[in-house]
Amino acid sequence: MLFDSPHERPRERMMLYGREQLSEVELLALILGGGHAVARGMALLQESGGLMGLERATPQQMCRTPGVGMAGAAAICAALELGRRVALLQLPYARAIECPADVAEFLRASIGSAPQETFLVLGLDARQRLQMIRTIAKGSLASVQVHPREVFRPLVQAGMHAVILVHNHPSGEAEPSDADVILTHRMARVGELLGIPVLDHLVVTREAIASLAELGFVAEVVGPDGRTGWSTTRRRPWEGGADSDLGAPARAHDPGSPFSRE
Is 131 helix (H, G, I), strand (E, B) or coil? Predict the structure, then answer.
């Protein structure tokens, strides 16, 4: 990518046309600064495997690209973290959560790019407003083990009326695994016994979210007025087998990980 005219350089293009018009390489060049910044930005993107790989890279990994250095790596990591925090500001605290889209952007920014599986719970009040978020467990690249006791204890203590389960797939594949379905069914049964219904279990990646309620693996919760409080595009009845030991730990599993073991 060559810039023969000053008006074609990244800095001037941003001032003239706005930041939205710049390519990823040009944005990186502005962060890196100095001579041959465009070439260095292009090399860094290529070695990282694109923007997604760059977001997951550590400063030490970025420094391996010639011409990036400690200062450049630190500046890029700072810019990525600022972007992540802006997305986190959009968390709809104290607002009614009615469908997966209401929390999708926040969840993707929060754990979509996490290098290991992370299991969260979103606690909702009687009006289905988000009141709490808790990290229950962190696991490996391919799975995370969770216990019903640890999942529901903070919800009971806080007096929550419903819960949304969440975990990520570091592989980038949002499709739920068989282990995810088994875990969902078990947690839903425990929630039913405790009076804290599981509205959904969301599987998160940086680019997508899968809803196990939409896939039919979570029973529809009907309120006293006969209405459902969780909107999904499609549902089908649960077709799983008999209940397993509800008090035993279960695990979420990322089937897309090269480290998966079933």
Answer: strand
For residue 114, count CB atoms less than 10 angstroms from its CB and return exposed for 0-12, middle for 13-18, buried for 19 or more: middle
Does residue 245 or residue 44 have the better pLDDT? 44
Strand ranges (DSSP E) for the chain?
118-124, 130-138, 143-146, 162-168, 198-204, 209-211, 250-253
Question: What are the extents of the domains in the chain?
Answer: 6-87, 93-253
The answer to whether residues 202 and 107 touch, using CB atoms and an 8 Å cutoff, is yes
The tens digit of pLDDT for each residue in 106-158 reads 888 888 888 889 999 999 999 999 998 999 998 887 788 899 999 999 999 99
CATH match of 93-253 with 1.10.760.10? no
Residue of 233, 221, 235 whose CA lies nearest to 126: 221
Sequence-separated (6 or more) residues with CB below 8 Å from residue 65: 40, 43, 44, 47
Length of the chain: 262
Is the domain spanning 6-87 CATH 1.10.20? The answer is no
Query: How far, in Å, CA of 29 to CA of 51, rounded?
Result: 14
At which residue do the structure tokens 């979509």 appear? 112
Per residue in 227-253, pLDDT (tens digit) is 555 665 544 333 334 444 555 556 666
> What is the CB-side half-sphere exposure of residue 128 using CA atoms within 13 A?
20
Report the predicted TM-score, pTM, of the whole model to 2 decimal places. 0.65
- The torsion angles phi and psi of 205, rounded to 5 degrees, stand at -130, 180
